[in-house]
């Protein structure tokens, strides 16, 4: 059996007519924990975290969670969020080694995207398309390496509260961003970490800066995937701005699930594109 698997930060459980098996991450505070599955109430979680003043953090899927996702597969394709911010990739690798001890004839490809969210979705789409075209496991393994070098991720965040509570950014800086109504424009670095690029105020300026950074990275009209945190209006507006420049774009917009909502926070958008 062929299986396509991802951790829950990919934000999707189906691509076209193909099911994606999910290994869920968790979001923790000292008081609560949230499993990033289909039952998670994103709105309630965001409200709670906004009011929460102490440390919050995330936890990668357990080895058992990965093994459950692998179960029954003999050709398995796994896409994970960045190893630069999470132990998710390493956890999947441990599960792979255990699974292969019991199923030595199976083949398992694990792709560390050095990214998250919509860039993971692009990778899943690529792998599924290649498999539907009849390509071999070995061909797909080589092709994913090349494809990773041709995709990029960008974001615009209205709040850095959770990143500050998680220890990723300075709390004073995060507080100032919120008070000044500034959006932080950034990207996923080559090491798979969060890399701020610029600050911007106003929707038009945010769109302009995002498009500028995308074109600097080599974007010329490839696929675009946009996820948003309770901000479909902004995501749709950005999509329209892109289509004014590239009328025949393949764009998909969808809401973020738990893990991406935790980092991007309410009103944030995350964009992945082929460059």
UniProtKB/TrEMBL annotation:
InterPro entries: DegV, DegV_C, DegV_domain_contain. Keywords: Lipid-binding. The keyword Nucleus does not apply. GO terms for molecular function: lipid binding. The keyword Metal-binding does not apply. This is EDD domain protein, DegV family.
């Amino acid at each position: 059996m062929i299986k396509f698997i991802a951790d829950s930060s990919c934000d999707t459980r189906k691509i076209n007519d193909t099911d994606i098996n999910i290994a869920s991450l968790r979001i923790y505070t000292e008081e609560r924990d949230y499993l990033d599955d289909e039952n998670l109430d994103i709105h309630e979680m965001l409200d709670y975290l906004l009011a929460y003043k102490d440390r919050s953090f995330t936890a990668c899927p357990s080895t058992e969670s990965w093994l459950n996702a692998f179960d029954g597969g003999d050709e398995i394709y796994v896409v994970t969020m960045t190893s630069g911010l999470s132990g998710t990739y390493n956890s999947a690798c441990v599960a792979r080694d255990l699974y292969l001890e019991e199923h030595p004839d199976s083949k398992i490809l694990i792709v560390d995207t050095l990214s998250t969210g919509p860039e993971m979705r692009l990778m899943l789409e690529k792998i599924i398309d290649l498999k539907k075209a009849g390509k071999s496991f070995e061909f797909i393994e080589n092709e994913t390496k090349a494809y990773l070098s041709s995709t990029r991720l960008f974001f615009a965040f209205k709040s850095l509260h959770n990143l500050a509570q998680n220890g990723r950014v300075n709390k004073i800086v995060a507080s100032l961003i919120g008070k000044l109504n500034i959006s932080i424009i950034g990207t996923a670095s080559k090491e798979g970490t969060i890399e701020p690029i610029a600050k911007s105020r106003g929707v038009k300026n945010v769109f302009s800066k995002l498009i500028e950074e995308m074109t600097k990275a080599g974007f010329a009209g490839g696929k675009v995937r946009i996820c948003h945190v309770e901000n479909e209006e902004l995501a749709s507006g950005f999509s329209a701005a892109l289509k004014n420049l590239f009328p025949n774009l393949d764009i998909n917009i969808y809401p973020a699930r738990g893990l991406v909502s935790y980092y991007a926070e309410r009103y944030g958008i995350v964009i992945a594109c082929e460059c």
